[in-house]
Design brief:
10 strands, 6-stranded parallel beta sheet, binds D-glutamic acid, 11 helices, Rossmann fold, alpha/beta, 4-stranded parallel beta sheet, 2 domains
Amino acid sequence: MTTPDAPIGVFDSGFGGLTVARALLDQLPNEDMIYLGDTARAPYGTKSIPEVREYALECLDYLADSGVKALVIACNSASSAVLRDARERYDVPVVDVILPAARRAVRASRTGRIGLICTEATATSGSYDDALAAVPGVQLVTTPCPLFVDFVEAGVTGGDALLRAAQDYLLPLREAGIDTLILGCTHYPLLAGVISYVIGDDVTLVSSAEECAKEVFATLTDQGLVHHGPREPSLRFLTTGSPELFAGIGRRLMGGFVDRVEQVYTVAG
Ligand code: DGL
């Protein structure tokens, strides 16, 4: 039986889920958090869905065994791979990034022409197509942007090489006449500057990180699991890779809240 005092467990293949962690800190500043980044096996987005599924369930099991009160799958590729069974597997609430972002995009779009940028794994899984299948009048245009994750994992969020990659990926979407763009990878909010610069500010960007954090707030509230009293939250960052690397890039991308980073060996393949 879980309690409001328990931490929230947040999982991603690497650094991208930190965008969800930051949104959670903004919306739920009194919550303890355990973040697990499977950096030793990132990127997930270039791997097959069965492989991503195996790694993701291992990481989620690890967090569930650590006594978290909710699991947040802060990775679109992992969400795409385990969406169907994660909710039955755990006895705490599980929040993913796909459904909240898909819902927001439908509300934001005036024309129904919605773009999706994501990893190859998310594109192949068809998870966003499934999420939007029942909505009449929606046309989803999907473009995998594999290089974007490499840029973020290297700590690069600007510069000529990134701008060229963004133009190659995004200008065809602009020509396709989308009015809303789902950032269907939790790494991408860190590239929102260049994405918005290229796609134009008449296209509404939907961040799966921001929408996921709202969903976590709603889920904890509905289940009576919000920690109400003010407290200095305990934030633990776990990585399957190098803690020094994680702390360095994490701090560069997200600021000082990436403080204590520990290595976990048990989930590494
Ligand atoms: N952050 C992950 C996602 O949202 C992908 C990064 C990766 O390829 O590992 O899809």
